[in-house]
Structure formats: structure tokens, C-alpha cells
Amino acid sequence: MRSIPKGYLFNRTPTPPGQSRKWEDWELPCYITSFLTIVILGVGLNAKPDLTIETWAHNKALERLEMEKIGVSASASGESE
């Protein structure tokens, strides 16, 4: 049988002043799991490797510039001898 709404949230009467609400059995595990999920995702997503194509291309371009620089300095030192 359905109870008649009393006008309170979740049909609960408010607690008397100075008293706190008693937690239900599911609340603590739910809050702990939610907090740990947020922490694990926050750390894990920030620590993932950068595998974007832009990063790869940037690193390749730096390698090529370094190789050209080494090649130019090697050929310049070979001509001066």
C-alpha cells in the first residue's frame, strides 16, 4: 500500500533539532567507492602517456633538425681541415 505524501523530501519527516540523520547501510560503501573512483581516474588520466600525432611529429621534427645540425657541423669541420 502506498503512503500518502507528507510534503517532505523522500517522504521522510525531518529530524528534531540537534539530531543528525542516521546513515543507511548502502551510503558509506557508495561514498567510498565514488571517492576512490574519482581519485583513481584523476591520477590515471593525468599520468597516461601522450600518444597524439602532434607530439610524435614534433619529436620527429626535432630529431631531424638535430641530425641536420650534426651533419652541417660535421661537414663544416671536415672542410676546415
Automatic annotation (TrEMBL):
What protein name is recorded for this chain?
A: NADH:ubiquinone oxidoreductase, ESSS subunit
Natural source organism: Quillaja saponaria
Q: Where is this region: Disordered?
A: 1-22
